[in-house]
Amino acid sequence: MGLVVQKYGGSSVADAEGIKRVAKRIVEAKKNGHQVVVVVSAMGDTTDELIDLAEQVSPMPTGREFDMLLTAGERISMALLAMAIKNLGHKAQSFTGSQAGVITDSVHNKARIIDVTPGRIRTALDEGNIAIVAGFQGVSQDSKDITTLGRGGSDTTAVALAAALDAEVCEIYTDVDGVFTADPRVVKKARKIDWISFEDMLELAASGSKVLLHRCVEYARRYNIPIHVRSSFSGLQGTWVSNEPRGDQQVEHAIISGVAHDVSEAKITVVGVPDKPGEAAAIFRTIADAEINIDMVVQNVSAASTGLTDISFTLPKAEGRKAIDALERAKGTIGFESLRYDDQIAKISLVGAGMKTNPGVTAGFFEALSDAGVNIELISTSEIRISVVTRADDVNEAVRAVHSAFGLDSDSDEAVVYGGTGR
Asked: How far is Cα 196 from Cα 181, in angstroms, rounded to an integer?
């Protein structure tokens, strides 16, 4: 048996009973002959609670001390889980991200992994231990400060360790039974997908599917690490994410893989931009210099009488204030008239490699939204994805309508969400 990396999310280790249940599953993998490395998130909503606490102390907490605070949650989980495993008669050692050799850049609160040197993990495994690693964190190569990886950081930690240790598989344990055709919290008839390609999973993740984050899937694709998404609350097979299906994995050659939605974005409209070369470049250079990622972009046709146009784009809500401030400072240079900010929007995306060769998908998508009475504000497409922006109030109705329109509803039992607040 080879080496397996298992990652457990906050809902799986939310309390003492959950930690003991996870410990039994880990020990079972060890008894089956595997070397086991485990990556854990903070318990339940601990990270959100720490963020709330920091905001009570400081209006906009960021930087080094914020990272020092947030990494405490994973350290609690790893120590308690190691204790629970030892109580079952097996050896376990816990490691922080820096002790595990997770080396990052120097960007606090959203650092990127640049190397993994898991020497201490290999030594622990060779000595017969189960290695428990705190997810979401690493150490800066330059400053040697503790850093955090941002949302989904524990998933990324797990895949990075799996690549560095040449693991057979990276198992991501969560509070649902796998990747579904839509969020089962919104669409009760969503179907579990047995296998999905890295390409389709990347699009779903980038479009708002929270079961796996985009960075994690990109890392796995780069190093060809199969991911098995499954629930820690059941013994069911989950969803395999890989280049190609393995063994008896069922593959449905569907046109559409799933419907994703995202309510974490906002829209900025730059009003009255001179319609001449270089203006759009100046706007987006300003945003880039503020280290803000944008998603969808649309530019209106300029008015013939004024020679002015409007440019709209979406970005994370959390970056909205920073983007507005950056653009206001550059207003004199760019020469636009005003800014509009809207954080009551949602993005809905239809994803599937099959749509490249199937006419009518786009028409069916817009017809489903029209029948549901949902108005479209922005549109973006790729070869395997169509995304639209709508009002946030319409998103659940829109997702259910599109899911049904493309025959994705399950005929069997409703999808089960075992735990977690979805916070």
From this structure: 11
The mean pLDDT of the chain is: 91
Q: How far is CA 340 from its chain centroid?
A: 28
Query: Do the strands 265-274 and 35-40 form a parallel or antiparallel pair, or are they unpaired?
Result: unpaired
Extract the tokens encoding 420.
């977690």
How far, rounded to the nearest angstrom, does the alpha carbon of residue 107 sit from its chain's CA centroid? Answer: 19
Angle at 176 between CA 160 and CA 165, to 5 degrees: 20
Q: What is the pLDDT of residue 102?
A: 97
Residue 100: pLDDT band with limits 50, 70, 90: very high
- Pick from 409, 251, 264: nearest CA to 346: 264
- Structure-block tokens of residue 307: 């020679």
Count other C-beta atoms under 10 Å from residue 279's C-beta: 19
Question: How many CA atoms lie less than 13 Å away from 17 in the CB half-sphere?
Answer: 2
pLDDT tens figures, 2-12: 999 999 999 89
Residue 342: which H helix or E strand, with range? Answer: strand 338-342
Comparing 248 with 392, the larger pLDDT belongs to 392
